[in-house]
Design goal:
Beta Polymerase, domain 2, 4-stranded mixed beta sheet, Arc Repressor Mutant, subunit A, 197 residues
Length: 197
């Protein structure tokens, strides 16, 4: 696990903590199991379990036992809900919000965040990202993609710029300068199965 200070928001202990909090606080109408959060954040179950236990002890999430699983959700009545949600929205928000916005749109093969947000998330130093660059691969209805990007932009309080390319264009080895640049720079793959699980 990466123990370096997060470049998206050094106020959090780790990127894992930021990603867990973003999923829970930016999706307040949903509940998550530890397994859900471990899959979504690509973090070890034991580490996520420890983080969830800390959040429960702090009283900023609520837990409810369902069978063998503990489901947690944001405590929207907590005094920290609004300010913490705002901080998460501008730091870890894109990877937590975009999968929900893209859910249900047919024809998406894959989706990535690229540009300055992806660079900061993957540890490249620099200023705070101003917008979010989204690459959608496949053949979805463009109107649905642009509508989802607009909704995501409203939630994230920043512009979401979308580029849609076909799966063939993405895998081809042609000399498209845009695609060459994208492939060489940091990419954060979105977990499109996260919402349906």
């Amino acid at each position: 696990m990466n123990n370096a200070a997060p470049t998206l928001s050094p106020l959090f202990r780790s990127d894992m903590q930021g990603e867990i909090l973003a999923r829970v606080f930016l999706n307040p109408d949903r509940s998550f199991t530890v397994s859900d959060l471990a899959r979504a954040t690509h973090a070890p179950y034991a580490s996520v379990h420890r983080e969830v236990r800390r959040l429960l002890q702090m009283g900023i999430v609520r837990g409810e036992k369902r069978g063998q699983a503990l489901e947690i959700s944001a405590r929207v009545d907590s005094a920290v809900f609004a300010p913490l949600s705002e901080l998460l929205r501008i730091s870890y928000g894109p990877a937590a919000v975009l999968p929900a916005m893209l859910a249900g749109i047919e024809g998406i093969t894959d989706a990535y965040i690229y540009g300055s947000w992806a660079a900061r998330r993957l540890g490249e130093p620099g200023g705070s990202p101003g917008d979010v660059d989204l690459l959608v691969i496949g053949n979805p209805a463009r109107s649905e993609i642009y509508e989802a990007a607009q909704r995501a932009g409203s939630v994230l309080a920043r512009e979401v710029n979308v580029r849609v390319i076909s799966a063939d264009a993405w895998t081809s080895s042609d000399d498209d300068p845009f695609l060459q640049t994208i492939r060489e720079r940091p990419l954060v793959q979105l977990n499109l199965q996260e919402i349906s699980e």
